[in-house]
## 1
Amino acid sequence: MNDTIVKEIMPTKISDKEKKIIEYLEEELLLEQFTDPLLKQMNFELSKKKTIFSFRSMDSDTEISEATSCSTIKSSKLQMCKSPLFRRRLSALVLEQLS
């Protein structure tokens, strides 16, 4: 017994209604932006920039701004710890306390 299904390869014809739907999706809803990898990356970068600049312009009373300011403080502390001058001063203070 042969259980394989034979399918005829026929070009599918798109009706006018389907063409209009596709045109609407491409032009009005900008479907390409959600399917094209390069456009998706560009949209992601633009939204990231908008988010960063919107965080900077917010009041300090909002939660998002507080979270951003905390991360800024942490990063500046980290930069200070990596500074060679800061390390020398810190090591001098520690040596004075030990002696």
## 2
Amino acid sequence: MNQIIECHHCGAVNVIPEGEYFGGYCECCSSDVYAAPEPEEDAPVSDYTPADSLTYLTNSAVIALDAAYEEIHDVNGEGIETEDLPDHLQAAAAIVLDVRKSIRREAAKHCDSSARTYSNGVPINIRYQGARLIGPDDRPYRPGYITTVHPNGTPDASIPPQSIKS
């Protein structure tokens, strides 16, 4: 199945055949398709709806709950199965999952969970490459990340320079 990626900079549709690597740059305008578009000078980015706020809060809360769930299972640096955790941590893990489920269920009633942008055109998430690291095989690599973006255009994570050499 082909992957379809729309460039929010120029509007071009990039079709990536199954199994092929997509470098993240538009074939038409060479822009990073995952980078937030530059806001227009006169366009207020503060124009967003209550549904946009709910989408942002849902995504941010779910990410935080997923991180808490992972931390609960990472006792002493080991990935421990839920049934092997002490009772109080099993209860904490169950609470985290219940809250996550409730947030998702309620947000689904008011938000389009498949939307890629807010009502004002700001992307909901940004994919970016992390800082350059050296892998176990002594080869450099840049891990990929995704961060949520506030409807006003501010990413939740500070994004390092996206130059290939950095």
## 3
Amino acid sequence: MLETPMLTTRQQEIWQFLAEYVDGHGYPPTVREIGDAVGLALPST
């Protein structure tokens, strides 16, 4: 996976989840799935 030094820790966590999810499923997760995976209470946070 590409290193992304310009991202915050939280952004890196989300990016990692996205990359792994797409690799495993072949399509991107929903906003709710992203939030659940990284501990966001609401999609707007």
